[in-house]
Amino acid sequence: MVTCYLKYIIDPWKIAEFEHYAKLWIPLVNQFGGQHHGYFLPSEGASHIAYALFSFPSLAEYECYRQQSMQDEACQAAFRYAEETRCIVSYERSFLRPVFGDQDDATSAEN
């Protein structure tokens, strides 16, 4: 399993727009075989940073999702919404391997 961690720099005056964008993507990631763990918006502290986490069974399956999303009308509409509202200033993406207490070491090492 691979988890994509996204750190967004957002326009603090456009949190409502970013929240709408987030709600567009959650079902799309799930539709393409991922498991979305949610978006995390500013509450206390920095007002311009948000996060998202979602997982795919493998990096290869994540790459398939990325390719398919470039052809999907709903995904393209979500990209356009962010561009038109300019709610996202920038973002960085990292990939993590989660460790759960109920997995044995062999399973964790395979992914």
UniProtKB/TrEMBL annotation:
Q: NIPSNAP domain: from which residue to which, for each copy?
A: 8-99
Record SUPFAM superfamilies: Dimeric alpha+beta barrel
Q: Which InterPro entries match?
A: Dimeric_a/b-barrel, NIPSNAP
Q: Which residues form a coiled coil?
A: none
* Domain of life of the native organism: Bacteria
Q: What is the name listed in the Swiss-Prot or TrEMBL entry for this protein?
A: NIPSNAP family protein
